[in-house]
Amino acid sequence: MDIALTFFDGLSDLLINPQKRLFWGYLLSGFSLAFLYLCFIRKENIKATFSQTFGKDIWWSASAKSDYLIIMINKLVMMAVIPLIITKLAIATYIFENLHHLFEGRPQLWLDLPAHWVALAFTLSLFLMDDASKYLVHRWLHTVPFLWAFHKVHHTAETLTPFTVLRVHPVEGIIFAFRAVLVQALCLGTFFFFFGARVELIDVLGANIVLFIFHITGSNLRHSHVWLSYGSTIEHLFISPAQHQIHHSIDQRHHDRNYGAVLALWDWMGNSLYLAKDQAGLSFGVQGEVQPHHLKNLYITPFKEAFLSLAPKRKKPLLDHSSNN
């Protein structure tokens, strides 16, 4: 009974926790933005607008159904794994204590600096470290064959809904969980060492205010069929929904582009930025995948492909050019 309650509490938390992207408020704001954009900017009729946002062929496709199943299975898996992951508080404490060995005593920086400036510095630093680490890990998931075998599960989605963000193999989920813990612990431990009790997160409903703004302004449209571009200037700074859809495109030109979560700066600096100039009727998925939504291919096959990627490639034997005469 306790396991069942924990399971359903975890699922409901996805929709009621403002720290989660699928929080109902973010979904509502995203769909509202989509309707306003499609109806008043794109001049689409109501039927076309509804089809792009709530079409049955999108929300009840084989791809979407597998998204929902993955979310439930992964919730069970993570219930068993998360308790084994060391907490950010433990790592933050470790960092805090070891900083004493690097610095004599415990220097307090800018003691006359108002607490709200410390809070602002902490909030922005945490956001920047979090976003930069997401970019790096995401890039590695694409460029390291062992990791791509697991990340490919996310890209086998052939239709995109906000729930596709959780279409991930448990191995990827664990990688990102470790990433989050390490980033938060490093930021917490360092700031508390230098600024003490003045450290505070500027939040809205418990969510970092920067991420709250990101989510409330349509983050969920990234995994959708609503083509929303910010224009080339802004897309050098922030990843638009259209840019992330390009990231999911099956077109070879779009591969290994737009790894960023919020900021496009990392892609710009990493030469992986692709601007959403024109909508070209994108198709999503991974070429050559057979039965991409079958549970075996979503959970078991990635392990096989990952370890095969580690096997040394056989060198082709040199041709014998010696004469037989």
From TrEMBL:
<keyword id="KW-0812">Transmembrane</keyword>
<dbReference type="InterPro" id="IPR050307">
    <property type="entry name" value="Sterol_Desaturase_Related"/>
</dbReference>
<dbReference type="GO" id="GO:0016020">
    <property type="term" value="C:membrane"/>
</dbReference>
<dbReference type="GO" id="GO:0005506">
    <property type="term" value="F:iron ion binding"/>
</dbReference>
<dbReference type="InterPro" id="IPR006694">
    <property type="entry name" value="Fatty_acid_hydroxylase"/>
</dbReference>
<keyword id="KW-1133">Transmembrane helix</keyword>
<feature type="transmembrane region" description="Helical">
    <location>
        <begin position="108"/>
        <end position="129"/>
    </location>
</feature>
<dbReference type="GO" id="GO:0008610">
    <property type="term" value="P:lipid biosynthetic process"/>
</dbReference>
<feature type="transmembrane region" description="Helical">
    <location>
        <begin position="76"/>
        <end position="96"/>
    </location>
</feature>
<protein>
    <submittedName>
        <fullName>Sterol desaturase</fullName>
    </submittedName>
</protein>
<feature type="transmembrane region" description="Helical">
    <location>
        <begin position="176"/>
        <end position="195"/>
    </location>
</feature>
<keyword id="KW-0472">Membrane</keyword>
<feature type="transmembrane region" description="Helical">
    <location>
        <begin position="23"/>
        <end position="41"/>
    </location>
</feature>
<dbReference type="GO" id="GO:0016491">
    <property type="term" value="F:oxidoreductase activity"/>
</dbReference>
<feature type="domain" description="Fatty acid hydroxylase">
    <location>
        <begin position="125"/>
        <end position="270"/>
    </location>
</feature>
<dbReference type="Pfam" id="PF04116">
    <property type="entry name" value="FA_hydroxylase"/>
</dbReference>
